[in-house]
Automatic annotation (TrEMBL):
Residues 345-419 form the Pyrimidine nucleoside phosphorylase C-terminal domain. It comes from Anaerotalea alkaliphila. It catalyses: uridine + phosphate = alpha-D-ribose 1-phosphate + uracil; 2'-deoxyuridine + phosphate = 2-deoxy-alpha-D-ribose 1-phosphate + uracil; thymidine + phosphate = 2-deoxy-alpha-D-ribose 1-phosphate + thymine. This is Pyrimidine-nucleoside phosphorylase. The keyword Glycosyltransferase applies. GO terms for cellular component: cytosol. Its EC number is 2.4.2.2. It comes from the Bacteria. GO terms for biological process: pyrimidine nucleobase metabolic process; pyrimidine nucleoside metabolic process.
Amino acid sequence: MRMLDIIEKKKRGGILNREEIAFFVQGYTRDQVPDYQMAALLMAIWFRGLEDREVLDLTLEMAGSGETLDLSDIRGVVVDKHSTGGVGDKTSLVVAPMVASLGVPVAKMSGRGLGHTGGTIDKLEAIPGFSAALDKKAMVDTINRVHMAIAGQTANLAPADKKMYALRDVTGTVDQTGLIASSVMSKKIASGAQVIVLDVKTGSGAFMKREEDALELAARMVSIGKGLGRTTAALVTDMNQPLGEAVGNSLEVVEAIRTLQGKGPKDLYELCLALGSQMLLGAGRTGDPGEAKKLLQEAVASGAALATFKAFVEAQGGDGAYVDNPGLFPEARHVAEVPAPRSGYVQAIQTEEVGVSAMLLGGGRETKDSPIDLAVGLLVRKKVGDFVEQGEPLVRIHASGRERLEAVAARLTEAYTIGDAPVQRLQLVKKVLT
Ligand code: URA
């Protein structure tokens, strides 16, 4: 078999078979296929697309290109949850303990933040001592003890995807739904969970700006998961404004703790109930969506979810005193409000700009090796549909230096559109696909 023939076939709109897909995935991972040929194939795929069967085969090949986690030593049906990335998305910190406190094991592999979106591991590292460097045995033991664990992705999980994703990033071939779906799902399949619940974000702060693209991606990922024997659900959810109020690592952990105490922002809690319900249904904890929601609400009201979060933090080396007393998190040196330039209703928020602002404060990464400042970030006080008086705070900035604070304040003022006409609040959960 020759790589050139595979490129030619896809260029002319052909459908690649399993052997051809195995040839280029394995060849590229082993450095037998050069970057220039792989780049040509990816561009041909971008123009010609991939059929469902090709996406399934690509996912399987990439999932099998490295280590796969065998979670069969965990008692119960293991659930994973994944978000395609957003601004202020601390959902995993809340929904994982809610579900785990009901006895359903949650095994989550997470990444670090990049660009305008944050990462779960960075947020958790705001808790002194917390470590996501778990090997398979530590992960299984932790889950059997406290019903949940959140681990950083090991280097050898789906290495084919890692290499192909890096090449896609520099060849204009990231935004193809078949390639994205197989990339995300290859890591989920290799991570071993039996139930996969996906949160596909759409809107100005998401990777998928257009709802129809998010729906297509969600449908493709559900089809892959089911095709490979995993119970899979996807929620398409709004990211036209930050989720909750906090954007920035320790600020988001504090908000997650408040939500587990039953005192968090309504939108964040609503999303956690919707995702958590799918996790419980998928695991067979209950077959009734209404019952699932009730169980989750009770887990918060009784304090069980918060207790599970603390047990999980301590099991992974973190200081549980920070969960009991979030006042222990260090405050950023400079705090200031961004005032509304006029009175009116918030019509829209350029959410990616909010994420970029948090990154520029030092809370996120411009490149994958940038250091981050865990204390800085934003509290978004006004959301779409809110009325605001001129001079009232739109956003509160937590910064480590004055210069950055001022630059970000100007940017955030621009990110808000305020007008006279009342506007509808945004619908958070747009669609559930199972
Ligand atoms: N995230 C991934 O893991 N893969 C993609 O292709 C895009 C986003």
